[in-house]
Amino acid sequence: MDNKVEKIEGVSVFMPPVFPDDRGFFKEVVRISEIDKLLASNFSVQQMNHSRSVKNTLRGVHVAPWNKLIYVSSGKVQSVIVDCRKSSPTFGKYVSTILGEENRSALFVPTGCGNSYLVLSEEADYIYLTDAQWAPNLEKSFAWNDPEVKIEWQLEGEPVLSERDKVHSSFASVSF
Predict the structure, then answer these.
(1) For residue 172, what is the DSSP state?
(2) Measured between alpha carbons, how far is residue 27 from residues 15, 43, 79, 174 in Å?
(3) 117 included as an active-site residue
(4) Where residue 79 falls among pLDDT bands split at 50, 70, 90?
(5) Residue 7 domain-assigned (yes or no)
(6) Residue 105: how many other CB atoms lie within 10 Å
């Protein structure tokens, strides 16, 4: 059974235009008012995070009780979002998209969806805003290669994993 889907409710890609010139480019990444419309409430930024990773680093799959807005400022990643909301029609399904310098889009991930990414370039800078502050024991996680979800990674060889990401439990244990 293929678990990849084209769309998960609440997951949105924002692709405003890029304005290049001889100095470089200008881009409005996203307007918070667009996220507010999507949520029908306010996306109040509480924390901003920046992660730099090398090729074949695979981070996640982490499921958090907060919304995220993701932007890859340099490099290229395969971003995978897994629907972990039991009440959702796409529960257990995932979407995969490429983020980074080639398309310069931003990705919104709603509460209860698992977030993970694989670095495809030599290095990537992954930046994200959240509407709640991180605290211990709030996030849940499951294995990047869980046999129930069956994510199709664009992986070349073995992934570079954190100790935490090497010992995750199964998808069945993390739903919201």
Answers:
(1) G
(2) 10, 21, 21, 36
(3) no
(4) very high
(5) no
(6) 22
Residue 62's pLDDT is: 93
Q: What is the pTM of this model?
A: 0.92
pLDDT band at residue 25 using 50, 70 and 90 as cut-offs:
very high
Catalytic residue, chosen from 50, 62, 126, 168, is 62
The DSSP 8-state label assigned to residue 86 in this structure reads T
Over residues 125-152, the mean pLDDT reads 94
Query: What CATH number is attached to the domain comprising 38?
Result: 2.60.120.10
Q: Point out the catalytic residue in the list 117, 126, 128, 168.
A: 128
What is the C-alpha separation between 30 and 34, in angstroms, rounded? 7
Residue bearing tokens 């796409």:
90
DSSP state of 157: S
User: Considering its fold, how many domains does the chain have in total?
Assistant: 1
What does the alpha-carbon distance between residue 61 and residue 166 come to, in Å, rounded to a whole number? 11
Catalytic (active site) residue 128: yes
